[in-house]
Amino acid sequence: LDYQHVQVPFEITLWIMLASLAKIGFHLYNKLPSVVPESCLLIFVGLIMGGIIYGLNDKSPPVMDSDIFFLYLLPPIVLDAGYFMPSRPFFENIGTILLYAVVGTIWNVFGIGFSLYGICQVKAFRLQDVSLLHNLLFGSLIAAVDPVAVLAVFEEIHVNEKLHILVFGESLLNDAVTVVLYKLFRSFCEMSTIKSVDIFVGVGKFFVVGLGGVLVGLTFGLTAAFTTRFTKDIRVIEPLFVFLYSYLSYLTAEMFHLSGIVAIIACAMGMKRYVEANISLKSHTTVKYFMKMWSSVSDTLIFIFLGVSTIGENHEWNWPYICFTVVFCLIWRALGVLVLTFFVNRFHVNTITSKDQFIIAYGGLRGAICFSLVFLLPDFHRKKLFIAATTVVILFTVFVQGMTIRPLVDLLAVKRERESAPTVGEQIHIRFLDHLLAGIEDISGHWGQYYWKDKLEYFNSKYLQKILLREYDQPKSSIVLLYEKLERKHAIELAEAGQLGHAPSHPSLLRSGFLCSNNNRTAITDKKLEDTLNPDVLENIQQILARNLYRIRRTGPAYNRHTLPGEAEPVEHAEEILILRHKSL
Amino acid sequence: LDYQHVQVPFEITLWIMLASLAKIGFHLYNKLPSVVPESCLLIFVGLIMGGIIYGLNDKSPPVMDSDIFFLYLLPPIVLDAGYFMPSRPFFENIGTILLYAVVGTIWNVFGIGFSLYGICQVKAFRLQDVSLLHNLLFGSLIAAVDPVAVLAVFEEIHVNEKLHILVFGESLLNDAVTVVLYKLFRSFCEMSTIKSVDIFVGVGKFFVVGLGGVLVGLTFGLTAAFTTRFTKDIRVIEPLFVFLYSYLSYLTAEMFHLSGIVAIIACAMGMKRYVEANISLKSHTTVKYFMKMWSSVSDTLIFIFLGVSTIGENHEWNWPYICFTVVFCLIWRALGVLVLTFFVNRFHVNTITSKDQFIIAYGGLRGAICFSLVFLLPDFHRKKLFIAATTVVILFTVFVQGMTIRPLVDLLAVKRERESAPTVGEQIHIRFLDHLLAGIEDISGHWGQYYWKDKLEYFNSKYLQKILLREYDQPKSSIVLLYEKLERKHAIELAEAGQLGHAPSHPSLLRSGFLCSNNNRTAITDKKLEDTLNPDVLENIQQILARNLYRIRRTGPAYNRHTLPGEAEPVEHAEEILILRHKSL
User: Which residues in chain A have their CB less than 8 angstroms from residue B564's CB?
Assistant: First the structure.
């Protein structure tokens, strides 16, 4: 037996296996995940495992390594979040999200820090040795809402898209603020005197960390898009580039002390539309599937490790401090949301209702990021108290808030997510309105979001697409792409139902006819509406219709390492087409 | 700048990126890969990079770590090979493959070992200090044909399926022999006296290492199949199990000093048919795609590292020894193939032609496995000579043989691989013949391969399928599955051509009608033929036809971490069906 030799990969594989099997286990009993969020169940599994390890070895089980968390477990989840981020609601609410993420987080940090310092002054609690700076440092790590925890809970309760993006977007973008404040207070703790210059430098750093992250991310994202222009002959490695470039953007940002989370999100959002157009359909399925799979596994591991790490002797149980931390976390978040939303609502027509405000405040879950940060603290005599307080806050938010938020959403009758994707008709009207508003903004001289969006779209089609897309002479309108996607999906369903060729269903005929005429109409409407719009839309549709009878079934060579069966490009067989045409006429 | 912190993942990502970009680079110029095999180009890139590193640092570039090779780079390639192994030709030729892999390898090891020992006796060469045991040890690592190198060259030349499986199967299965002989001679080198018992133990080990590997692999493979029975509600982690279980089988086998390569192949071949039936179509695409991607990257990295590691000061250039090694490798392989094929041809109707024999002998490429094994040798004063000889043999076989084998195949007019996959008609006839032969063998009392195959199939449908498949009450015949696959592919092509619903093409009507009637006919033929055959085939077809009009288009919720859009199960809408039926009548 030679265990040493294979230990590292063997144990990693076993942990992932355990996590996956736990997941299957929960889903075998359908009732369980519908009541308790998966994150709670996973932490519970972790607690049991930690208990077993503690009981057997009689020493604390290993704590989740912060390096492993930040370098290997967090990036897949953030990449998945960024890649599948619904960009429209995100950019429509970007102002509100940034306000919550930046001002809200600073508010929470200072609120929690100062009030805990106040608690420390009460002699009965025996906490006078905890300085203001240490309290602020603790505040900076405990204030940040955790994207992993938020995602795990919110994707199960299906609230409306705006509410979801407000909480989720905040949890992602507050990373920049958390990183800056945490590092600032940590360096202040180690300094003997603090000059006012240092504070100004700290404020300046916000912009460097955040905008630097965006810049790094976009650079890598556009490079990724450019690279996929050249993968036509070697389709199997296409998915790799999506993962490699996003991971590199994260690592590069971390290397320069910028926000890695912001970088990977910018990278994913920047590359998405170009990569999707360049890579093959199968590559794209693989990218999507693997991202989901990876993030799902990471997320599972994080919660299990969180449970395991909770058990042990790392804690100092000073109950007043711990209880007040929980209370202040709740109060300051609620206050912050109320105050900020008051200002937001004054400048928006589409206001945030009080029900939504409650869910935003209540959805401020803490998670593994706080946990990893508290272990990264420099050693000082009260570190174990901070670890205990962080653990309790995380368990409280994940268990109590996480488990009650679904009943509360039901009780308050919060507006839910719409069941189905927007129809082509709706999409057309949304686009129509976008163009109209961009025109109005242009005429009235008000440079609002529609104006900038339109300018960006112009820049994109004029320059970026030509560089980044393989077939840049024929860029496809999103509606044409949607049409193609729907048709393909429909075809597969038809084939699975055995309907193909036997008897074309009337609805499909009607529907596709409807889609087609809609597309044509859009193209014409769009064309008339504004000259910034792509005039190739119509041409595209014509091309799709023209390719009508040109493709016939063809099988590739039996097997090969670099290609999958059925990937070969179809060739045009003139004769076959003529026969087909003849028969259909 | 904090490079230390991200160094490990950053450098790994950069290496993979370099490898992928190099691959894209070759494929940009279509002419290059058609003349020079990719493996040669990659080694060349590696040589250049090694030269640059050597020139800049003035010390030898890092050598490929044997642990990294065996634990991380080799498994993906072998998994891919095992999973996509065409099982029919493999099992039809299993006897011949095993003969080449076991007897052929032993023949080569002793042949090369003893003749090199002869060379060492020539005083002019100054090699008298290399003992017989060391020569045999060297023979054991240089004799084994390398699956990675063989695959890289053979998949580009497209020889016929039987020839391919003979060379490739041999290269995979000789791992067990190589492992045993290598470890045996290595322990003999460290022993003072060798008893005859030790030699018998060594012979016994062959069976333990090989059969043990098969057992470990099958155990994990069937467990994997069993696990995927329960993943219906959590489709995104399905692909993970395929990778996790196969990797675990490899690691477990390595841990017990069994053949990891044999284990992972047994695992992949054992799980394939059950996993494919259990997991969703998208999961399966992801599994296939990711396997190809992973093996492609591993393979690229191996050849680049091979190039990089060649540069440096690890070599002792004793030219007589090196040249004779190359010559003996060629001669003993050629002799071995000739002698073994003579015996094989006496017992087979379908003989191996002399052209095929030449390609089998000439296709015995050496690669990274030899290279890693030679670095794992215990330190002794002639190790650098062995490293030099191994490097030269690898470069000679990959460059000279690899580059000339394609012209030789053309020149000799070796029978090529058939272009297209077998049609449904052919498949039916093959199955018909299988049943017939199984019956004949049963009656005549000759227990040949058809008899055993039939028994295995009976055992499979009677017991294994019920345990391992989710819908075990309706196991699908391979022909029904093929039919479904073809229909789905056809549907996608139709949709892409825009033909769907507008005008169903006549050929598709004809073809699917033909397929259907064929299926029915087969089912009846099969049913009449033997009662061991599945009586559900007919039922299956009826089900497919019955589902005809039942499925309608339906969209899932907008986004979720654990599911991909469009995964939801379609529901039966009674009203819609009635309307559809009414209209079609």
Answer: 288-289, 292
Residue A136 CA, distance from chain mean position: 28
Instruction: Answer whether B82's CB lies under 8 Å from B265's CB.
Output: yes
CA B156/CA B32 separation, integer angstroms: 13
Please give the Cα distance from A360 to A333 (Å, whole number). 9
Query: What is the average pLDDT score of chain A?
Result: 79
pLDDT for B503 beyond 60: no
Residue type, B557: P
- Cβ atoms within 10 Å, residue A338: 14
d(CA B437, CA B449): 9
What is the pLDDT averaged over residues B71-76?
Answer: 90
* Nearest-CA distance B92 → chain A (Å): 18
User: Two tokens at A188?
Assistant: 């202040």
* A426 and chain B in contact, CB less than 8 A: no
User: Across-strand partners of B159?
Assistant: B416
User: Does B565 touch chain A if contact means CB atoms closer than 8 Å?
Assistant: yes
CB-CB neighbors (< 8 A) of B297 in chain A: 237, 240
Q: Are B564 and B286 in contact (CB under 8 A)?
A: no
Tell me which of A191-200, B214-223, B329-338 is least confident: A191-200
pLDDT at residue number A537: 54
- From chain A, pick out residues whose CB is under 8 angstroms from the CB of B28: 230, 233
Cα-only R_g, chain A: 27
CB-CB neighbors (< 8 A) of A581 in chain B: none
pLDDT at B204: 83
Q: Is the pLDDT of residue A432 over 90?
A: no
Q: For residue A384, which amino acid is it? A: K
CB contact under 8 A, B295 and A152: no
Confidence of residue A326 (pLDDT cuts 50, 70, 90): very high
CA distance A535 to A556: 36
Is residue A249 within 8 angstroms of chain B, CB to CB?
no
Q: What is the pLDDT of residue B265?
A: 92
Instruction: Kindly tell me the burial class for residue A370, based on how many C-beta atoms sit within 10 Å of its own C-beta (0-12, 13-18, 19 or more).
Output: buried
CA dihedral B424, B425, B426, B430 (to 10 degrees): 100
Please choose, from the candidates A120, A107, A138, A123, the residue with its C-alpha nearest in 3D space to the C-alpha of residue A331: A107
Mark yes or no for CB contact B237/A20 under 8 Å: yes
Q: What is the mean pLDDT of residues B263-289?
A: 89
Identify the DSSP state of B416. Answer: B
CB contact under 8 A, B13 and A545: no
CA distance, residue B50 to nearest chain A CA (Å): 23
Cβ atoms of residues A300 and A15 within 8 Å? no
DSSP state of B573: -
B52: its two tokens: 């640059």
The answer, for B491 touching chain A at a CB cutoff of 8 Å, is: yes
Q: Rounded to whole angstroms, how far apart are CA atoms B424 and B428?
A: 6
Note whether B214 contacts A: Cβ–Cβ < 8 A: no
**Residue A512 in contact with partner chain B when CB distance is under 8 A:** yes
Chain A residue closest in CA terms to B78? A561
Q: Phi and psi of A61, rounded to 5°?
A: -65, 160
Chain B CB within 8 Å of residue A416 CB: no
Size of the A and B interface in Cβ pairs below 8 Å: 323
Cβ distance B565 to A288 under 8 Å?
Answer: no
Task: Quote the CA–CA distance of B210 and B260 in Å, as a whole number.
Answer: 9
Q: Residue B323: which residues within 8 A CB-CB, separation 6 or more?
A: none
B568 touches chain A (CB under 8 A): no
Q: Are B217 and B264 in contact (CB under 8 A)?
A: yes
pLDDT, position B149:
86
Q: How far is CA B24 from CA A227, A275, A501, B40, B52, in A?
A: 9, 16, 40, 15, 21
Beta bridge partners of B416: B159
